[in-house]
Design brief:
The protein has 3 helices and 53 strands. The chain is mainly β and 734 residues long. The protein has a 19-stranded mixed beta sheet, with no helix packed on it. A 7-stranded mixed beta sheet has the order 30-32-34-39-40-36-37, with no helix packed on it. Strands 41, 42, 44, 47, 50, 52 and 53 form a 7-stranded antiparallel beta sheet that branches. The chain is rod-shaped.
């Protein structure tokens, strides 16, 4: 009873005190904290050895206020039930639902600021189709995007959407057409390496490397890969720098490409340069349109339009322009020389100031110091020092030339007769030249074949051959012809080409080896000349040869061709061995009688200057020309002469042309034979002369009585005892 009264008094006192101060300390007599309505503590230091035990309530779900009568904001309880979406633990009410006070031990979905001990795989993110943004000071720093079209997540930093990286027609799958990681609104730095657009954030620039494109302002379409690549670039466009400090100094230069350590390192305003390799074009600052490929290629170059490919190729060129070097140490000696080309190890190695040289091959033009030399081949022209305008093509061609100029050596190991003499030539150690000082308009020089010191325009140390063509039919000559033979089975024609000025001196050699005639004709009414005569065509009879040379003249009636015609002699001979008897009456009439021959009387037909008509006993000329004609008849008067005042007989033997009368006689002979001789012997009467005949002329051998007595019985044409023929008729073309 006493204890009850004491407790009641304390409660009343406490209530009375709380009504006065509105603050209460439970657990001690110490004043409550000024900011607390209820302070639970046991000591003045604010500590205690006991805790606060909240009401233990069995909740049914976060949405239900039961077992309370309603939702009360701020209400805190310890839930004792595991049911629906509530588990044992502390909950507070936000006025609409119960909210669990999360703890690492009892709430599996909690992600603690101090770190989690998961024990199994956990995640932070969303369970629905919404993006997962991460913010700092309410500014979004990163977003995990849900790609609903492809049902995949994507990550964007500084961007609200994934970047499309491939078109729908590219062949990439729909999922691969967008980036897995998108970085926007600024460059990225990965372990100190910048990845992005560089200074100015120009959308067409690409920067990859520490301080790559660091100072860029408006320059566009640039690519810098490597530490400090294109570092100083401000407004330069279309540049590519790949490698540490490549194009590091470029400011306004455009369209340069530097690939390799310090390639184009000092370039500032030079344009259109290409340097590939360590320290290529490292010194160039303002030079343009240079190309250097290889370690230290064009190392000191400051000029324009130089090309160097190979280790140290052109590495000493300073102000030279338009030089080309391909090969290790090619054109390495050039400093200010221009327009030189060296291809091969150490080609043009020593040249410094010489211009317009071309050297292709190891050590070609190695010692050259002047210009205008050309050498192609291993060590070709390698010893040329001060000699200019030399050409050497072939293995060690012209390698003995030193100070000689204007020399030509073509072929392996071709040397000059003298290395200090100029204007020489050696082709294949077979064709040599001296005094070659001419020009296209005024040629000069001597050529020797198998003669190394020719003294004439052409000297041949042996035999020579020309083109030979055999023809069996008519043919039109061309510039590809020289020596032609004709061996047709019918007559043929060779037609000369139309003459032109540049054909002056062209020659044709023609031989007729056939048994037929070959006619040479011109075109455009151009003429041929042989000695003093001119003509438009001529006939080459069997065995003939001609040499025709062009005069360079052309046009109608121009004497375009000179002709030398060598005709082989042709002959035709008849020899009658039988005896012939002419009646006295016929003979005494004095009319020329044709001396007959039989076909079997033909003894010679060499090339046949004509044809024999056996039925008419005449010869037809087939070729114009000069002919030697010879004939003979043995005369005998049977029965002697008619008694009268004369005792001799005048016997005429002649050759007629195109008839049988005395008016057609072109040559003949007469024999005045006494009766005592004519009656008992056979006297020869010989005819020999030369005549100019034309094709178609008809020749006959005739005999007729001249002045003197008539024959009594007959005239016999008979061979004397000891001879083989009674008559002959020979025709020879000369």
């Amino acid at each position: 009873m006493k204890k009850f009264l004491f407790t009641l008094v304390l409660i009343v006192a406490a209530l009375s005190l709380s009504s006065l101060k509105a603050q209460v300390t439970i657990g001690s007599n110490v004043e409550p904290n000024a900011n607390a309505l209820l302070d639970l503590k046991e000591t003045a230091a604010g500590t205690a050895t006991k805790g606060l035990l909240l009401p233990r309530v069995a909740l049914t779900s976060t949405a239900s206020f039961s077992p309370l009568s309603g939702h009360v904001a701020g209400m805190t309880v310890y839930n004792t039930a595991d049911v629906n979406d509530v588990t044992k633990g502390y909950y507070y009410n936000d006025g609409d639902k119960w909210v669990r006070l999360a703890d690492a031990a009892n709430v599996s979905s909690a992600w603690l600021l101090g770190g989690n001990t998961n024990g199994t795989e956990r995640y932070i993110g969303t369970n629905d189709a919404y993006d997962f943004p991460i913010k700092v000071r309410n500014y979004e720093a990163m977003r995990v995007i849900w790609d609903a079209d492809n049902s995949v997540p994507r990550v964007a930093v500084g961007a609200m959407a994934a970047t499309t990286v491939a078109s729908a027609t590219s062949g990439s799958t729909a999922e691969m057409q967008k980036a897995k990681l998108t970085l926007g609104n600024g460059d990225a730095s990965i372990n100190g390496v910048t990845v992005g657009k560089g200074g100015g954030q120009i959308v067409t620039n690409t920067a990859l490397g520490t301080q790559s494109l660091y100072n860029n302002t408006t320059g566009a379409f640039n690519v810098g890969v490597g530490s400090a690549s294109l570092n100083a670039n401000t407004t330069g466009n279309y540049n590519v720098g790949v490698g540490n400090q490549s194009l590091v100094s470029n400011t306004t230069g455009d369209t340069n490409v530097g690939i390799g350590y310090k390639s184009l390192n000092k370039n500032t305003t030079g344009v259109a340069n290409i340097g590939i390799g360590s320290q290529t074009l490292i010194t160039n600052s303002t030079g343009s349109r240079n190309v250097a490929i290889g370690d230290n290629a064009l190392f000191f170059s400051t000029g324009n339009d130089n090309v160097a490919v190979g280790d140290k190729s052109g590495d000493n060129i300073i102000g030279g322009i338009a030089n080309v070097g391909v090969g290790s140490s090619a054109i390495t000696g050039i400093t200010s020389g221009d327009y030189n080309t060296g291809v091969g190890y150490r080609a043009l190695y020593t040249n410094q100031t010489g211009n317009y040289n071309v050297a292709i091959g190891k050590d070609a033009l190695y010692w050259t110091t002047v210009g205008n030399n050309t050498a192609v081949g291993y060590e070709a022209g390698s010893n040329i020092s001060s000699g200019a305008n030399n050409v050497s093509v072939g293995y060690q061609a012209g390698d003995n030339i030193t100070t000689g100029a204007n020399n030509i050596a073509i072929g392996a190991s071709t040397k000059m007769v003298s290395g200090t003499t100029s204007n020489q030539m050696n082709i294949g150690n077979a064709i040599f030249g001296t005094g070659m000082t001419g020009t296209a308009s005024a040629p000069a020089g001597n050529i020797g074949i198998d003669v190394n010191n020719p003294g004439s325009t052409l000297t041949v140390g042996g035999s020579f051959a020309t083109d030979y063509k055999a023809k069996t039919a008519s043919y039109a000559l061309t510039g590809d012809d020289y020596y032609l033979s004709f061996n047709g089975t019918t007559d043929g024609t060779f037609t000369l080409p139309a003459s032109t000025a540049n054909m002056l001196g062209r020659m044709y050699s023609i031989k007729n080896v056939s048994a037929k005639a070959l006619t040479i004709i011109t075109v455009n009414s151009e003429k041929l000349r042989n000695n003093q005569a001119t003509f438009y065509s001529f006939v080459m009879f069997p065995g003939s040869y001609c040499l025709i040379a062009n005069t360079g003249l052309s046009g109608a009636n121009a004497e375009a061709w000179n002709v030398v015609l060598l005709s082989q002699s042709t002959a035709f001979a008849l020899s009658g061995k039988d005896d012939l008897i002419l009646s006295a009456a016929t003979y005494n009439a004095g009319t020329p009688l044709v001396v007959p021959f039989a076909a079997t009387d033909k003894q010679v037909d060499s090339g046949s200057p004509g044809t024999w008509n056996d039925a008419g006993d005449y010869f037809t000329v087939e070729q114009d020309g000069y002919y030697e004609i010879a004939a003979m008849v043995h005369f005998n008067a049977q029965g002697g002469f008619v008694a009268g005042g004369n005792t001799f007989q005048g016997v005429n033997v002649a050759v007629t042309k195109n008839g049988t009368t005395t008016n057609e006689i072109i040559g003949g002979a007469r024999g005045n034979i006494p009766e005592d001789i004519a009656a008992v012997a056979n006297t020869p009467i010989v005819v020999r002369f030369i005549a100019e005949l034309q094709a178609g002329n008809v020749l006959r051998l005739v005999i007729y009585k001249g002045y003197g007595e008539n024959v009594v019985t007959s005239v016999d044409i008979a061979k004397p005892i000891g001879t083989k023929e009674s008559r002959y008729f020979n025709i020879k073309k000369i």
